[in-house]
Amino acid sequence: MKIIIDAMGGDNAPAEIVKGAVEAQKEFGVDIILVGIEEKVRECLAEYGGAGNSHISVVNATEVVDMHDEPSMACRRKKDSSMTVGLNLLSKAEGDAFISAGSTGALLTGATLIVKRIRGIRRACFCPVIPNGDKGVVLIDCGANVDCTSEYLLQFAYMGSFYASAISGVENPRVGLLNNGSEDTKGTDLCKETHALLREAHEEGRINFIGNIEGGDVFTGKVDVIVTDGFTGNILMKSIEGTAKFLMKKIKSVMLCSMKNKLAALVIKKDIGAIKSLLDPNEVGGTPFLGITKPVIKAHGSSNARAIRSAVMQAISIVENDISGKIADNIEHMKLRSE
Amino acid sequence: MKIIIDAMGGDNAPAEIVKGAVEAQKEFGVDIILVGIEEKVRECLAEYGGAGNSHISVVNATEVVDMHDEPSMACRRKKDSSMTVGLNLLSKAEGDAFISAGSTGALLTGATLIVKRIRGIRRACFCPVIPNGDKGVVLIDCGANVDCTSEYLLQFAYMGSFYASAISGVENPRVGLLNNGSEDTKGTDLCKETHALLREAHEEGRINFIGNIEGGDVFTGKVDVIVTDGFTGNILMKSIEGTAKFLMKKIKSVMLCSMKNKLAALVIKKDIGAIKSLLDPNEVGGTPFLGITKPVIKAHGSSNARAIRSAVMQAISIVENDISGKIADNIEHMKLRSE
Predict the structure, then answer these.
(1) Fewer CB atoms < 10 Å away: N or C end of chain A?
(2) Cβ distance B299 to B281 under 8 Å?
(3) Which residue, among B125, B241, B246, would best test binding to A if mutated, counting the most A CBs under 10 Å from its CB?
(4) CB-based contact, B11 to chain A, within 8 Å
(5) DSSP string for B255-299
(6) Angle at A163 (CA atoms; ends A218, A170), nearest 5 degrees
(7) Does an H or E element contain A230, and which?
(8) Cα gap B228→B160, rounded to integer Å
(9) pTM to 2 decimal places
(10) Longest dimension (CA), chain B
């Protein structure tokens, strides 16, 4: 297996990206192609002990997509950027998956443009796993598609199910529709229409739909896949992140506010740290765009080496489980009956 | 000032409701009317030292609205319920505000039906204060109106501003529009239309609009009023509650997982408890329905005496600041220009 990595994307590129790639190669034994400004990438490789590694190759790309580039135009305009070159390598089957910590919008547009959507899929979507102290919950969509139809959401439900099976090993993932109440009659028109489609798919045995779920159900352990439009998914994820950050900050300040608290904190510090890392995006690694013909994985913009290593692990799982293939094979179930 | 309280609403009625009412009367010196099954209410009054209090009166109501009643019909069907009788007392100016811990849906429908919307207000809305360790953030709307127009949201922004001024004393509350990114161009069509209306109101000096804010901004201290539709507001609030509950449970389990942790926990327990109560809805008390001609306040269904006391304190502040009057006085600004 060969994983293509954008060495220039993200806040800590190229150093942490290259470092993580070297670590992942050693740990998982995969081949890696690093795409970026060759001189800089080779410098980092030398620094992190990857210089002589025959499983790591470098492909030169002279440009870098940055946060000032208009997302929808970045890959079109910067044809020799590490992102565009990497996506082209994936498209030409020079590797099995592409990972980038660069701009989410640019990567989504680039993936759609260069690697293409799976035939029949209406919209590619962004599909993070929200850590919940257990196997995590797949949130689909999260930010990619602000305006959705019930058919998009039906497709998200299928794609999210295949993905949850692959990454968490759940055989028949429980799919819930994010709503403002658990009763069947709740929600916007979009929710009600989607509820009916998911119910139908469930009754035909194609999906394990458990009904409407609420914002707090990420943590109640009753759902594996949360289906929603990209707007609501973004609000959900950001509010969870914000709340967790706020509370952990408060806990930290309690642990430092007096000498006696500092002493007590020494004892429980490690266990409290474990809670923090429960929710650490670096442990989760990357987030795939589902609905693209081949695996394209977005790593967090602030990814460190550990996060890149996690993203490679995730890419391997997505490739091995052939998520893209499963989506393509099931495309007939994922369309509206009326077509 | 006279506060009418539904003695029969909520999980802990009538005991905790009456107890909280007695405490609030003593602490704040207001007059209180308790509405409910008279015999039961008087028993509780005797138990909690309110029997001889001349500032507390009881109005008999033989029925109780419960969770099995269809919300839209409850007040119509149970005309002698404590909720319906209480709303009628408010409507006839027998008191200045009405508090109930009963069904949210029934109370909203009852308030609209009996106490009526302010002339020109398109929709009454539910407007909780989310605790954030500081003055809290007003979330408007939260669950009452699933489908909204930009005009509803413009009205929510004004109503939320008056309310935030009243409860937190902020002079020119910062209003943010909940969106999936902070850039002006982000969001659904509804977001973009509302953004334009709020920008216009800001430029005319009628509102302090700070632009789009994200799900995590409840805790960043940059916004006082979060404007959104009732669907998204519900997702935001539930996810905050769920995350906080999950983390506090994890912290608790760390503090109990070993003898040494238990000993350390004894030292910091009180300070950790203070963080928990930061987010405790019982401290916030009630949530008003704004847009109704007189103050109608929903107390949490699980309200204890402390929560009822907090709700009375909040009712007093809403009456003193004449929120309903301010909304009515500003109704011309709250309409679309095209009308």
Answers:
(1) C
(2) no
(3) B246
(4) no
(5) HHSSHHHHHHHHHHHHHHHHHHHHT-HHHH-EEEEETBSS-EEEE
(6) 70
(7) helix A230-256
(8) 11
(9) 0.91
(10) 69
B166: helix, strand or coil: helix
Contact yes or no for A263 and B267 at CB 8 A: yes
Please tell me the predicted confidence (pLDDT) of residue B337: 67
Q: Is A331 exposed, middle or buried (0-12, 13-18, 19+ CB in 10 A)?
A: middle
For the record, the structure tokens of A72 come out as: 């929808």
Structure tokens at B87: 């709303």
Which chain A residues touch B251 with a CB distance below 8 Å? 251, 272, 275
At A214 the three-state DSSP class reads coil
Inter-residue contact B96 to B5 (CB < 8 Å) = no
Q: CA-to-CA distance for A108 and A105, rounded, in angstroms?
A: 5
pLDDT tens by residue, A255-266: 888 888 888 888
DSSP assigned state of A182: S
Residue A337 distance to chain B (closest CA, Å) = 27
Q: What is the ipTM of this complex?
A: 0.91
Q: Are B228 and B213 in contact (CB under 8 A)?
A: no
DSSP letter at A101 equals -
Q: Which of B180, B216, B278 sits opposite A242 (nearest CB)?
A: B216
